[in-house]
Specification:
Elements (H helix, E strand, L loop, with lengths): L3 E2 L6 E10 L1 E3 L4 E2 L9 E10 L2 E10 L3 E2 L8 E4 L2 E9 L2 E9 L2 E4 L11
Parallel strand pairs: 6-10, 7-11
Antiparallel strand pairs: 1-9, 2-5, 3-4, 5-6, 8-11, 9-10
Length: about 120
Amino acid sequence: MRQIPVDTNGATLMVAQPPQTKMRDKRNGVIATDLDTGHTLVTVDVLFVMNGNAEVVTITVAEPDISGELAMGTPVALTGLVARPWENEFNGQKKHGISFRAVAVTSLAAGASKPKAA
């Protein structure tokens, strides 16, 4: 799958919505997991502010790769952020968009815990 690196240098990033468990199948309660590690995936809504423009983007990350408290308004760093174009067809309707995935989401708040060792 094509991945496009996203440069966050010069951007202000803060949590808009705390981490939520990502569901693979909401109807049946199936939780999404990373295909390589098996870790549970979570989504974090992040306010991305750059050049006077602000947008909330949903970032997917493996649960163990979140460090520190991610309450609303917490400044964060996004490590290894990539954008992935996607397209699917369901019931004859084509849908497409861009999803965002990060290697890690780290709180920049004073007193935040250190990232977990790999």
